[in-house]
Amino acid sequence: MTQQVFRADGAKITAYLDAPEWEGVPAAALGAFTCKTAAAGADVLAQALAFIREAGLRRVIGPMEGDTWHSYRFVTQSDGSPEFLMEPAQNPVALKVMQDAGFAQISSYFSARVPLTQTALTAPPTTAAFEVTPWDGTNPEALFDQVFTLSTAAFSRNAFYKPIGRDAFLAMYMPMVPLLKRELIFFARRPDQSLAGFLFGTPNYAEGPKPRSAILKTYASLEKGAGQHLAYAFHKAAVAEGYDTAIHALIHEDNLSALRSAAEGAEVFRRYGLFGLVLDD
């Protein structure tokens, strides 16, 4: 058994025994943690930690639903603005329960917003290494198949990376197809048409059927400069589509994209954390 759900009065948590490694050491993860009271939360957390200890693991990370392809991170700081589409929900009681149990923050992230009138003012230097074009809106399964191949290569060096199978990836992302807006999805292709990078943007449908903000959700690249060109194309397209705000979503504080977001003048409105605990022997 690689995972187990634990429940108490109004609380639930899932322990995963095959989580990503933490600093090169096998680790377990705790995800889907909800609790109405701190006492009930502490109860299920203690049960989950006992299960992990019995399995022989001593490092625990969370919140994480098995891997970073699925939901992970707690909101740690907020200006109170509404959640955007696909953002981790605020869970202050569960966060405090884990902190009280000794979990400390081991990775930091943020989301920022910027008026689109401040973005895409200067085009990146021209390059012959790749060309950025929008998705044509056809064959979404082929789209996600390409995204899977590049993602596994681009993210493999990231902390807490764990491989995922192609079928599992497609099963997770194909339900998103009705939300896709082709004008906000871009590819960077080399002269031989091989994929050098991609960017996924989406309207912030959490605002309703006519959102005013567009989310720069995910981008990855294998060529130097491709990320900058993709972000420029996204901001320019979002302006043309009539959005007034860009949300730079869920950025790791140490990533180059954090510097690019700051350079655009984006202001942080939410911070997130991934937490870890080393169990005593």
Automatic annotation (TrEMBL):
The protein's name: GNAT family N-acetyltransferase
Query: Which Gene3D superfamilies does this one have?
Result: 3.40.630.30
Instruction: Look up and give the organism this protein is from.
Output: Pseudorhodobacter turbinis
* Record lineage: Bacteria, Pseudomonadati, Pseudomonadota, Alphaproteobacteria, Rhodobacterales
